[in-house]
C-alpha cells in the first residue's frame, strides 16, 4: 500500500479539496463512494454506509492521502480539526467503472480530474450526483468508451458552467437525468455531442432553472424512445428550436415541456407522434407559449397543446401539488401559497371584526334594554320624590347613582 504516485500506471489519480469548519469537526464526512461494485437489491442502489460492506478490491486498488499522508481506505473520514484539506485518490489500475464515484460527496469544494485516466471506463452514471462544487474541469476526461451517463451531473446545485467540448458520446445509450437539478447552470454547449445511439433522454434537462438558451441542433434522436420531462421546469428557457428532432420511435412525451414558464417560441415542426403512447401534461403551465409561436404539423400534438392551454388535461390543476413533489419545488406556486395564506389571514381578521361588530350590536341592544329599565325606575322614583325633604335627598342620590352608571358604561 505504500507506493507513491510515480509507481502508479500513468500517474492515475484525482485531487480534491475540502474545507472543514467547526460544525463538521468529528462528523463522518463522505469523501468517496463505492465505484466498482455497488450493492444492488431489487433494482435500487444501496449506498454503502459501513466498513463491513466495503469492496475488498477497492482497498487494493485505491490509496487515499490526506494532506500527503496515507490514511486507511474508507468512504467516510472524521476530521479532528478545522482547516483546508487536500485529498488524493491514487488508482493502482485503470478503471472500467466510475459510476457513483463522488455521489453525495457534498462537502468537497473542488475536484481535479486532470490526471485521471478513464480510457477504459464504460460507466459514468451518477459520477458527480449531489456534489456541491461550482465547476468541474473535464477537459482531460476520455469518454470514448462510455455507454452510460445517466444522472452524471444530477443535482449539482452549485454548478454554474460546464465545458463538455471534449466529450465523445458516440457510444452513449443512456442520458436519462444527465443534468437534472443543475439549478444554477446558466450555459450549456452540447454542439459536440453525438447522440445517434442514445435511447433514453428522460429528464435530461429537468429543473435547469437558470438555463436561458439551449442549442440542440446537432442532436440525433432517431433511436430515442422516451423524452419524459426532458425540459420540464426549465423556467428561464425562452426559445427552443427542436426542428431537427426525429421522434419516430418515441413512446413517452408526458411532461416534456411542463413548467417552462418563460418559453415563448417552440419549434417542433418535425415531431412525429405516431408511436407516442403518453403525452399527458406535455405543455402544462407554458403560460407564455402562444399558438402563433408554437410550430408543429402533428395533429395529435396540436390537440394536446390546445388541451393544456385550456387546462383540460385530466384535472391537472387539482393534482398539481401532488405531481409536483417529483418535479422540484415551485417558487411561483410558493408565491401563490403565500398570497393564499395572506388572504386566509385577512379573511380570519374580517371574521373576527364581524364577530366583534355582532358583539357590539348585542351590547347596544343590552344597553338599550337597560336604559329603558332605568327610565322606568326613574319615573317611578319621581312619583315618590318631593314628598319630604328626606325623600328629596334620596331622590338626588338615586339620580347621582344613575348618572354614575351611565357614564361608567361608556
Number of extended strands: 12
Order of helices and strands: EEEEHEEEEEEEEHHHH
Unreliably modeled segments: 1-9, 36-57, 312-338
CATH architecture identity of the largest domain: Alpha-Beta Horseshoe
Helix residue percentage: 10-25%
* Secondary-structure-derived class: alpha+beta
How much of the sequence lies in strands comes to 5-15%
Radius of gyration from the alpha-carbon trace, in angstroms: 36 Å
Helix and strand topology:
Elements: E1 13-20, E2 28-30, E3 39-41, E4 44-46, H1 56-61, E5 62-66, E6 69-71, E7 76-78, E8 83-91, E9 108-112, E10 239-241, E11 265-267, E12 294-295, H2 299-310, H3 320-324, H4 331-384, H5 389-409
Parallel strand pairs: 10-11, 11-12
Antiparallel strand pairs: 1-8, 1-9, 2-7, 3-4, 5-6, 5-8
Helix pairs in contact: 4-5
Structure description:
This protein has five helices and twelve strands. The protein is α+β, with helices and mostly antiparallel strands and 410 residues long. The protein folds into three domains: 103 residues, no CATH class; 179 residues, Leucine-rich repeat, LRR (right-handed beta-alpha superhelix), CATH 3.80.10; 64 residues. The strands form four sheets. The protein has a five-stranded antiparallel sheet. The chain has a three-stranded parallel sheet with strand order 10-11-12, with no helix packed on it. The radius of gyration is 36 Å and the shape is flat.
Amino acid at each position: 500500500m505504500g507506493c507513491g504516485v510515480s509507481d502508479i500506471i500513468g500517474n492515475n489519480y484525482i485531487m480534491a479539496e475540502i474545507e472543514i469548519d467547526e460544525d463538521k469537526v468529528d462528523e463522518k464526512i463522505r469523501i468517496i463512494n463505492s465505484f466498482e461494485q455497488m450493492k444492488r437489491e431489487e433494482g435500487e442502489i444501496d449506498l454503502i454506509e459501513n466498513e463491513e460492506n466495503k469492496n475488498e478490491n477497492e482497498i487494493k486498488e485505491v490509496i487515499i492521502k490526506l494532506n500527503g499522508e496515507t490514511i486507511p481506505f474508507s468512504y467516510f473520514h472524521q476530521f479532528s480539526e478545522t482547516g483546508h484539506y487536500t485529498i488524493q485518490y491514487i488508482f493502482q489500475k485503470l478503471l472500467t467503472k466510475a459510476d457513483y464515484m463522488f455521489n453525495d460527496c457534498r462537502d468537497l469544494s473542488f475536484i481535479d480530474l486532470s490526471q485521471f485516466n478513464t480510457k477504459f471506463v464504460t460507466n459514468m452514471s451518477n459520477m458527480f450526483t449531489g456534489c456541491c462544487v461550482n465547476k468541474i474541469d473535464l477537459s482531460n476526461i476520455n469518454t470514448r468508451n462510455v455507454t452510460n451517463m445517466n444522472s452524471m451531473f444530477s443535482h449539482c446545485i452549485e454548478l454554474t458552467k460546464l465545458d463538455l467540448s471534449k466529450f465523445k458520446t458516440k457510444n452513449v445509450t443512456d442520458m436519462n437525468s444527465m443534468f437534472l437539478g443543475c439549478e444554477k447552470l446558466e450555459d450549456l454547449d452540447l454542439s459536440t455531442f453525438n447522440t445517434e445511439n442514445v435511447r433514453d433522454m428522460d429528464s435530461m434537462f429537468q429543473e435547469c432553472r437558470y438555463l436561458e438558451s439551449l442549442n440542440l441542433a446537432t442532436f440525433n434522436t432517431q433511436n430515442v424512445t422516451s423524452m419524459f420531462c426532458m425540459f420540464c421546469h426549465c423556467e428561464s428557457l425562452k426559445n427552443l428550436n427542436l426542428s431537427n428532432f426525429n421522434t419516430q420511435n418515441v413512446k413517452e412525451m408526458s411532461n416534456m415541456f411542463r413548467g417552462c414558464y418563460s418559453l415563448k417560441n417552440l419549434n417542433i415542426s418535425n415531431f412525429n407522434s405516431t408511436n407516442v403512447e403518453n403525452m399527458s401534461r406535455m405543455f402544462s403551465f407554458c403560460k407564455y407559449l402562444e399558438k402563433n409561436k408554437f410550430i408543429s404539423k402533428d395533429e395529435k400534438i396540436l390537440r394536446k397543446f390546445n388541451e393544456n392551454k385550456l387546462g383540460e388535461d385530466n384535472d391537472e390543476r387539482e393534482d398539481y401539488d401532488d405531481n409536483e413533489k417529483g418535479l422540484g419545488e415551485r417558487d411561483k406556486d410558493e408565491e401563490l401559497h403565500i398570497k393564499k395564506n395572506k388572504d386566509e389571514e385577512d379573511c380570519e381578521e374580517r371574521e373576527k371584526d364581524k364577530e366583534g361588530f355582532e358583539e357590539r350590536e348585542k351590547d347596544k341592544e343590552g344597553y338599550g334594554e337597560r336604559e329603558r329599565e332605568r327610565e322606568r325606575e326613574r319615573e317611578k322614583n319621581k312619583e315618590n320624590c318631593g314628598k319630604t325633604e328626606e325623600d328629596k335627598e334620596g331622590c338626588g342620590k338615586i339620580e347621582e347613582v344613575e348618572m354614575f352608571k351611565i357614564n361608567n358604561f361608556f
